[in-house]
Specification:
The complex is a heterodimer of chains A (521) and B (226).
Chain A lengths: L1 H15 L1 H54 L8 H17 L7 E6 L12 E2 L10 H9 L4 E9 L2 E14 L3 E10 L1 H51 L14 H57 L6 H31 L8 E4 H18 L4 E4 L6 E4 L1 H18 L5 E7 L3 E8 L6 H5 L22 H11 L3 E7 L3 E9 L21
Parallel strand pairs in A: 7-9
Antiparallel strand pairs in A: 1-2, 1-5, 3-4, 4-5, 6-8, 9-10, 10-12, 11-12
Helix pairs in contact in A: 1-2, 2-3, 2-5, 5-6, 6-7, 7-11, 8-9, 9-11
Chain B lengths: L2 E5 L3 H13 L3 E5 L2 H11 L3 E5 L7 H11 L4 E6 L3 H9 L4 E5 L3 H12 L11 E4 L2 E4 L5 E3 L2 E3 L3 H12 L5 E2 H7 L10 H14 L9 E4 L3 E4 L3
Helix pairs in contact in B: 2-3
Classes of the chains: A alpha+beta (521), B alpha/beta (226).
Amino acid sequence: MLFSRLVKAALGLFRSSLQIRALVLTVALSGSALILLGGVLSVSIGNGLFNTRTEHALEESERAKNALPRILKDVVSDSTWSLNQGIKQAISELESSGVTQSRNVALLNASNRPNAAQLENSSSDGMDLALISADFRQQVLDNKDIQSLTVQIIRSGDTVPALLTGQKVSLPGGHDYELYLIYDMSNEQQSLGFVQRTLVIGGLVTLGIIGFFSFLVTSWLVRPVQEAAEASEIMASGDLSRRLQVRGTDVVAVLATSFNHMADSLEDKINDLDSLSKMQQRFVSDVSHELRTPLTTMRLSADFLFSQKDSFSDGSKRSAEILHTQMDRFDKLLDDLLEISRYDAASVTPEYGVHDMNGLVGSALAAIQQFADSKDVYLDAVIPSGAVQCEVDPRRIDRILNNLLTNAIEHSEGRPVRIEVGQNQKAVAVTVMDNGIGMTESEANQAFNRFWRADPSRKRTTGGTGLGLAISIEDALVHNGMLEVTAQPGIGACFRLTIPKRQDLADFESPLPLAVEKIEL
Amino acid sequence: MSKLLIVEDDDALREQLEIGLMASGYEVCFSATGTDAIPAFEKHQPDLVLLDLMLPGKNGIEICKEIREVSGVPIIMLTARTDDTDMIRGLEAGADDYVTKPYKTEVLVSRIRARLRPIKSKSTAHPIVTIGPVEMDTLSHEVRKGDQKISLTPLEFKLLLTLASHPNEVFTREMLLEQVWEYTYKADTRLVNVHVQRLRSKIEDDPENPRLVLTVRGWGYKAGPE
C-alpha cells in the first residue's frame, strides 16, 4: 500500500519534471555502462587469478609425482608393511613440500597385483575423501595426464574454493596408485572479492559524481525553460506585463526573444479588445442614458394624454391608451437591454445573502397570481417542508422565477403549471413545468437565445421583451448554477434552475429530475 | 399653491413637466442650467426642488450642497437608473429622495406630495418629544440640544420624530421607507442608511459611536437607550 503510493508519487515526479527525467535517464544509462564494465573486469580478473593458480597447482602436482620415487627409494617392494610405511611417509612429506601453503594429499590404492589387498589408502588428517568422486577417479585412471577439478572444501568453518588434482602413479612393486592433491584457493577468492568490492564502490562513487554533474548541467539547461513556463503561467493568470530576460544568442535566447515577442503582441491584442469592450460598454450605457431623457418626456406626454383621454374622440382616446401601455414595454425593453449589456461587459456584482428558497418561490407566486388568474391558469406548488436555505442574490432569483412562471403561464394554454422546489446536500433546484404546446428539441436548444420566441410565427402576442430567458440564464450562471430546459411538442416544457447552496460549493447534482410529464392535480 | 423649482436642461422635458405638474396643481418655475440654479432658487424661494444631476455648468450634487447650506427645502433628485453612485452621492449631498428616469407622472407627483405633506405629531397635548439631551418641539419644529439649536431638514425631523416617538422600538429600513418617505412599493434601502448618517452627524456627540440613533444589526434602527 505504502510502497505502491511511493511508486505512484515517484512516477508522478518523473512525469512532471523534465529535469528529474533527464537526471534519472543519465544516471540509469551511465549505471548500465558501469555495471557492464565492472562485470567484464570482474570476470576477466577472476579468470586470470584462477588460471595462474591452476598452472601453479599442476606444476606442483607434477613435482610431487616426480618426488615420489626419491621418497620411496628405501621401500622393500615385496613387503606390504614397508610399502604402507612408505605411503604414510610420502603423504607427510608431500603435505609440507608445497610452495605456497600446506595442502592435503591422498594416495589411493588402484592396484590389481596379488598382494594389493594388504596395501592401504592413505591421506592427510582431516581430509574429506568424499571430495574425490568415483567419476573423477575413473577419469584419473583413464588418462595419463594430470586431471583437475574445482571443488568446495570446509576450512575452519567456512566453505572455500579449492582445486583438486589427480594423477596415476606407480609405486615400487608395480602397484598402481592415484595421487590426489587439494590446493586451497581462498587467497585467490579473497583477492577477487577485494577487486569486486573496489569495483562496486568505485562504480557507485562514479555514478554519484555523474548524477551530480548531470544535475548541474540539466538545471542550467532547464532553468530558462522553467522561467518561460512560470512566465506563461503568470501571463495566463492575467498579468500580461511579464517578460523573460534574454541572455546570449543561443537557442534559449531565441526562445526568450520569441516568447517576449508573443507576449508583446498578446498584450497589445488584449488591450485592444479590452478598450473595445470598454468602449462598447460605455456606448451602450451612454445610449441608454441618452435615451432616458426623451423617453421620460414621451412618458410624461403619454401620461398627460392618457389622463385627458375622456375628452378625446374614440380614435384619439384609443391611441392615447396604446401609447400609454407601449411606453411601459419600451421602458422594460430598455432595462433588459441594459441588463444584458452589463452581463456582456462582465460588470455584474450580485449581492449575496442567505435566503429561504421556499419564501422566494412563495413571493414570486404571489406576484404572478393576478396574471395567472387573468389567463385562467392554476398554479400548483410542490414545496418541501422546512426552510431551504441558500446563498443567493434574491433580486436575481426572483427575476428568474418570474420569467419562468410568466413563460409557463403564457404557453400553458390554460392547463395547470407546476413549480417544485427540491434540495440535497449541496444544491437547491426549482422546476417550472407546463402542459402547453411544448417545443421540439431544436426549439428547446434555442430557448435561451436573445429575442427568440417559441411560437413558429414569432408573433408578439405577449408583452415579453424576448430577453427574459437570456437574462435568466445569465442570472443562473452568475450564481455558479445552471438553467436547463427539456420539452416535447404537444406535451409541454420543463425548466430547471439548479444553484449551489453556498458559493464555495462545486460538483453538485440537481436534486430534481429534468423531465416533462402530465401534471395530475 | 406649492411652488416647485425644476432644474432640468432638456427643453422638451421641462415643458412637459410644466404641463403635467401644473395640471396636478403646482406652481412651477425653472432653471435650465446648473449655473442659474442658485440664483433661481434665491429669486423664487420654492417649496420643493426637482434636481437633475447631469447638468451643464454646475452639476446637481454641488447645487444640492449649496442649497443645503442655506435651506432645508425638500430636494428630489431626477436620476438615470445607470447612475447608482451618483444617486448615493446626491443623497449624501443632502437630497431627500430620488426618482429614476423614465418616471411616470403619478410616481413623481406622489413623491412630491409625500415631501410637501406637513409633519403631524400624534399628541398635541405634549408637543415636546425628547431623545436623550435632544428636545423636539412638534409645533414649532424647533430642535434643541441643551442650549444649542440644531437645524434639521423636514425629512430629518420626521425621521428623528418617528424613531423618538417609540423609544427602543426597532424600525426596519422598509418600515422607515414606508413611514418617513411614504413608499408603498419597494425602494432602495440605502436611502435610509444615508439619511441616518446625516442625522447622526447633526445630533450625536460622536457620530462614529452613536448613542441616540442606534443600529440594530440585521434589523434596522432604534432610538437610543435613554
